[in-house]
Amino acid sequence: MNQNVLPKPSASPARPGKSNAAEASTYRRFCTQCRAHLEAGDRFCSRCGHTSGAAGERSRADAARREPRAPSRPPFAPALKTPEGLAAATTIDARRARLTLIVRVSCTLAVSVGLAAYLLTNKATTGSNALAFWGGGTAIAAAIAWLGINLRSWSERDYYSVPGSRDEQGEHRCIGCGHRGIYRHGQYASNAEYANCSKCKTRLWVGTK
Question: 20-68 pLDDT, tens per residue?
Fold first, then answer.
């Protein structure tokens, strides 16, 4: 027999990576809940039903990939700092100012006509005295109307007609600072109710109780 001939290997050498796969197949995992043995492909424990760690991580990763991210909402802008809200507030102010002027003029004219009718029916006051009486009464009525009549305060309906006076959830918002709180207070011996912002103290509207 030739002693120089090398013996043939009994088995072919293992390919790179096969030994790692074999080791991985024989690797035993344990349940983190009851410490029972888990096979390589088990997603749940056969004893207690607890989710295995790898399955839990995969499920959380899959859920994170599937769940759409909610778009970030821009911060709320008060109505008076937006073009639409400022335009609506300006329109309401102009309308209330016109209404105040109409009522003042109407009251002054009503007093003036009433004094003139009184002088015409009463013959006791004639000439310059009658003219002075009529002019003085009209001037006093105009002063009282201009100082005592002011209809520029908004109503609750006016306030909530401004875009931005409510947020997306329909909750109240101050058109000046964007705060949600309302401070309501009344007037002694009166049914008037005043609504102010509880943060910036701005007068919001005037209503009735």
Answer: 444 444 455 677 777 777 776 677 777 776 666 554 555 555 555 665 6
- Annotate 71-101 with DSSP letters as a single string: PPPPPPPPGGGSHHHHHHHHHHHHHHHHHHH
- Model pTM? 0.60
How many angstroms separate the Cα of 112 from the Cα of each of 14, 99, 106, 208?
Answer: 118, 20, 10, 32
Q: For residue 152, which of 65, 87, 93 has the smallest C-alpha distance?
A: 93
Between strands 192-197 and 182-186, the pairing is antiparallel
Nearest to 146 by CA among 99, 108, 93: 108
Q: CA–CA distance from 129 to each of 108, 126, 134, 189 (Å)?
A: 20, 6, 9, 41
Q: Where do the domains of the chain lie? A: 22-65, 78-152, 165-209
* Per-residue model confidence as pLDDT tens digits over 160-201: 999 999 998 899 999 999 999 999 998 888 888 999 999 999
On the CB side of 83, how many CA atoms lie within 13 Å of its CA? 0
Task: Indicate if the alpha-carbon torsion angle 160, 161, 164, 166 is positive or negative.
Answer: positive
